Amino acid sequence: MSIVFPAVLVLMFLGVQGALYFHARTVAMTAATEGAKAAAVEHGTAGDGEAAALGFVNLAGGDDVMTDAAATAAVSPTSVTVVVTGRSLSLVPGWQPLVQQQATAPREALS
Fold first, then answer.
1. Ordered alpha helix ranges (H), the chain
2. Which of 11, 16, 43, 49 could connect to 39 by a Cys-Cys bridge, CB 3.0–4.6 Å?
3. Do residues 39 and 52 lie in contact, with contact meaning Cβ atoms separated by under 8 Å?
4. 88 three-state secondary structure
């Protein structure tokens, strides 16, 4: 019994750590998608995409979900790619897993 209880606690903490990581990953993916949609409009810019992505991260919880959040956008004549990076919260002191997600959207253009 004295071996089972610590093992159960470790499994519990691993489950919570996994949930924190995947939540941060989902927020980063959705932020990248929102940024790509904002920059893909006809007169959208890379700055619009970055602002929209970081705005979504702040609405989703900001530093309570993902610390050191940053967004970069690359705009070409036919597509937009937004990359969101940050660090997931962690139960292990000194260890913050890196989260990086990207989304690409086609540019809107009137014919």
1. 4-39, 46-59
2. 49
3. yes
4. strand
In angstroms, how far apart are the furthest CA atoms of the chain?
72
Which amino acid does the sequence have at 85?
A: T
What's the pLDDT tens digit per position in 2-50?
889 999 998 999 999 999 999 999 999 999 999 999 999 989 999 999 9
The Cα 97–Cα 8 span in angstroms is 23
Q: Count of CB atoms within 10 A of residue 73's CB?
A: 25
The CA angle 98-32-41, to the nearest 5 degrees, is 160
**What is the distance between the alpha carbons of residues 35 and 71, in angstroms, rounded to a whole number?**
9
DSSP state of 90: -
Split at pLDDT 50, 70, 90, the class of 93 is confident
Q: Where are the domains of the chain?
A: 4-106
